[in-house]
Design brief:
Oligomer: single chain
Largest sheet: 5 strands, parallel
Radius of gyration: 24 Å
Shape: globular
Number of domains: 1
Strand content: 5-15%
Distance between the termini: 81 Å
Order of helices and strands: HEHEHEHHHHHEHEH
């Protein structure tokens, strides 16, 4: 009897840890997110400072854009996300269904030239539209007019003017570089640490205000809110193991990368090593 009990105890000691390990849940695969910041190829002129883009439908630019697409495709995206308002709750962009390669000679936007191109090349069925803009009853996500009004009324216009001058100079310099730089080289710059429209432009406006009225702080809070909502929308379509390419205006890149880096289950992927490979081919 004693031998039998000892044998049972030995078996339980051996089987116990293995059984417990088998019962543990395997953590879900991480979701990799690559944020590709771009300028607006179609010159929508809706921002405070706007890059005047060359027509990317030329033979030269089409060749360069395909090289960029080719390297982005080595990231093996499972989903493509673009800066566009969805018309349905599933966030599927209805316009992608009518895309053909001929569309690349018609529509200049980065959504088509990069987002649709990569999705089509990879044979993806859908592109997702996750942009956020205020509708009735929602706040202004970029209350820049209030910042301007306060600065004028309280002698802080020089602070705002200095911030705008820095950004305007960067935009002008970027525009001049288009003649001698490839698409990949331009994207490398706009996704780099010295991007002229980076977070410094927003944080500089924190100085606009006093202890009671703080329009610069409010603008930063609302800009954060808009980007948080954009990323939250992305989360509704993301699944464990996804590799998501976000093609978005570069002004959003700082916060979208922040969320990709800090949100549990997500990992941020730097696009610059991919863009460097494309630049080396041009």
């Amino acid at each position: 009897m004693m031998r039998f009990q000892a044998l049972l105890m030995a078996v339980s000691l051996i089987a116990g840890p293995g059984a417990a390990a088998a019962q543990r849940r395997t953590p879900p695969a991480p979701i990799d997110v690559m944020v590709l910041g771009t300028w607006h190829f179609a010159n929508h002129n809706l921002d405070v400072h706007n890059v005047v883009s060359e027509d990317v439908r030329s033979d030269r630019r089409q060749h360069e854009l395909q090289l960029v697409a080719d390297v982005l495709e080595t990231f093996r995206p499972t989903k493509i996300v673009i800066e566009k308002i969805a018309t349905k709750a599933d966030l599927i962009d209805q316009d992608f269904g009518s895309f053909t390669p001929a569309s690349l000679r018609e529509d200049r936007s980065e959504r088509v030239q990069i987002g649709y191109r990569v999705a089509h090349d990879l044979g993806l069925k859908h592109v997702y539209a996750v942009n956020e803009q205020p509708s009735d009853g929602e706040p202004d996500y970029f209350p820049y007019g209030k910042v301007q009004d306060y600065a004028k009324a309280h002698g802080q216009s020089p602070v705002l003017d200095a911030l705008n001058a820095r950004t305007a100079a960067g935009v002008e310099n970027f525009g001049k570089q288009q003649g001698s730089s490839s698409i990949a080289e331009l994207l490398l710059q706009i996704n780099g640490p010295t991007y002229f429209g980076g977070i410094e432009s927003y944080y500089g406006m924190l100085a606009i205000g006093d202890t009671e009225q703080q329009p610069g702080a409010e603008l930063n809070a609302m800009w954060y809110l808009r980007n948080a909502k954009i990323f939250a929308k992305l989360m509704t379509v993301a699944e464990p193991g996804d590799r998501i390419l976000i093609v978005y205006g570069a002004g959003h890149a700082y916060w979208l990368r922040h969320f990709a880096s800090e949100t549990p289950g997500f990992r941020n992927v730097d696009p610059r090593p991919y863009l460097s490979r494309a630049a080396a081919k041009q």
